[in-house]
Amino acid sequence: SFSPDEVIRKRLLIDGDGAGDDRRINLLVKSFIKWCNSGSQEEGYFQYQRMLSTLSQCEFSMGKTLLVYDMNLREMENYEKIYKDIENSITAAHEKISECKKQILQAKRIRKNRQEYDALAKVIQHHPDRHETLK
């Protein structure tokens, strides 16, 4: 009645990150109950060893999870640093763009002035110079 996706989704919801912790805890509880109800010393020792093994697996899983957590924290710090660097680069780029716009406006003004000077020079060249005019 359940699709494979639903089964996997439910297992992941129950299991957390998928490390099998719920299964290990259930196994530990069962081993503890068997250990409490063990008749012979040999069976009790076997259940005791089984519990130690399961506890060791749980500790290993917990240690692995803590390492992943620490790694994620360091990665977050790294990403924040990268984010700040990018923000600073964007700010610097905006400032440079603003400065370039000012330079473009100044260059346009200079070009316009030169064109006006050239036009005036052409008009002036059509008229005789002062020496000729005084003669």
UniProtKB/TrEMBL annotation:
Keywords: Coiled coil, Nucleus. GO terms for biological process: mRNA export from nucleus; mRNA processing. Residues 76-103 form a coiled coil. The keyword Coiled coil applies. InterPro entries: THOC7/Mft1. It holds the Pfam family THOC7. It is found in: Nucleus. One of its GO terms (cellular component) is THO complex part of transcription export complex. Component of the THO subcomplex of the TREX complex which is thought to couple mRNA transcription, processing and nuclear export, and which specifically associates with spliced mRNA and not with unspliced pre-mRNA. Required for efficient export of polyadenylated RNA. Plays a key structural role in the oligomerization of the THO-DDX39B complex. Belongs to the THOC7 family. This is THOC7 protein. It comes from Pygoscelis papua. The gene is Thoc7.
